[in-house]
Amino acid sequence: MLVPSKRYVRNGLLSVLRSDDYAAIQSAIEPVALGRKDVLVQPEQPLTHVYFLERGVASVVVGTPEGKRIEVGIVGHEGAAGLPLLFDVDSTPHETFIQIEGEALRIGKAAFFRALEQIPAFRKVMLRYAHVFQLHMAYTALSHGSYTLEERLARWLLMCHDRVDGDEFPITHEFLSIMLGVHRPGVTTTIHVLEGAGLIRARRSFIEIVNREKLRIVAGDSYGVPEAEYRRLITNGALPD
Amino acid sequence: MLVPSKRYVRNGLLSVLRSDDYAAIQSAIEPVALGRKDVLVQPEQPLTHVYFLERGVASVVVGTPEGKRIEVGIVGHEGAAGLPLLFDVDSTPHETFIQIEGEALRIGKAAFFRALEQIPAFRKVMLRYAHVFQLHMAYTALSHGSYTLEERLARWLLMCHDRVDGDEFPITHEFLSIMLGVHRPGVTTTIHVLEGAGLIRARRSFIEIVNREKLRIVAGDSYGVPEAEYRRLITNGALPD
DNA sequence: AATGGGATGTACGAAATGGTACATTGACGT
DNA sequence: ACGTCAATGTACCATTTCGTACATCCCATT
């Protein structure tokens, strides 16, 4: 895989940069393939790269020694993994791994710092993304605390759908149960409810989104706020300097 | 109230600065009293200041039009409110209000930007705090998704205890139920359980922490990770430059 | 001392989720 | 075609939390 010129970059954070700003970091960019369950950020281990996803989906999870584990963030071609480096933090308790395979453009730590310093627009878009990601985490907390499993599942499917090509993606009930912090049979049952209502179609290891509009209605206000904030601040957000 | 000289500053973010760095922003600092239910950050409204708490506790919450509402962060003398300004974001869906009265040192938006630019150590400590705050949000999401009400209540009481002077603070069951995203009678019942075990003592509108160690055992691993990360990165974290 | 309202105590049945166990099925390698 | 195993389907009861209703109790104000 080659380093793409700016016009072929899908990543939402890199593609909003001016051509000359992108050119300034292009040489530091290295394309990498992302396989299922690959770990981009290992908890408590030194971070080496920031990953700008081009395709595929990554999950950011936190866990405890007792084995509890839950997804607190999701990253696709709109974002990046390895944000602690932006915060001058070398390692973190979070874990980030690939949920759905794809590719990323990654930048080494030193080059990332240099780019932050030298390219104001890059720093800005990274900071704004960090805000949106944090907001996403806040709504994840709200979902886990105040929404039913059916609503949370609808929310997760919508977020995943936003980040993949097409209407179908590979995911098992087992994984979904970990992401949502519930037990696996509950996921199976709830998937049947959504499928019975004609909103999705489930095959072994795959889910297809059939009626996105109705899924949004099921998800209610658990979905949408961080997404709108992303559009406001990044897609449409002016990046002066 | 006067602007304190550095040696009398309690705020954990300001007090780690070198004297000369603190002196550089001292003239921009304005002390303000924080009364119960005062709003520091109004959702969707332009941010005007960053508040470094000296005493008291603030809650960061997110909500939905349907009226659901939950706490995703808590701020005391270890931190600051108004972080979106750090991210080059002028307004946010979050709301931040005072839970327990106190005082803060606040800095206007323009002076805050200037300080970030001119004082590397200040920028660093703010970024690191943003990371810890985000981590706190992640563990809040984990708590809401994977811990029982009793565990979550214990966690909240510990976090509040960390941020007040003494072992007693004013809080109603009603407020706690909003913070934890559960119904109010459940809070009452759970408080009785903790009280029966001799971990806390409850009076009308007040809760006293009697046995912090046992509370930690009840809270389990829902409490502690962000706190340790704060100590690692800020209290003990070198701030070169 | 009266009184009004916020705060708390309590009590259900209803609903959602957890915990566990086990049968079935589809995909893949041999 | 067969065997194997991950993935899914289903069942059932225990536990937790919700929803709601209402009684009681502090305590500041009058």
TrEMBL record, chains A, B:
Taxonomically, the superkingdom here is: Bacteria
Return the InterPro entries for the record: cNMP-bd_dom, cNMP-bd_dom_sf, Env_Response_Regulators, HTH_CRP, RmlC-like_jellyroll, WH-like_DNA-bd_sf, WH_DNA-bd_sf
The record's Pfam families line, in alphabetical order, gives:
cNMP_binding, HTH_Crp_2
User: What species is given as this protein's source?
Assistant: Methylobacterium marchantiae
User: What are the Cyclic nucleotide-binding domain coordinates in residue numbering?
Assistant: 13-116
Q: What is this protein called?
A: Crp/Fnr family transcriptional regulator
| Entry-linked SMART domains | cNMP
Keywords for this protein: DNA-binding, Transcription, Transcription regulation
Q: Does the keyword Cytoplasm apply?
A: no
Domain HTH crp-type: where? Answer: 147-213
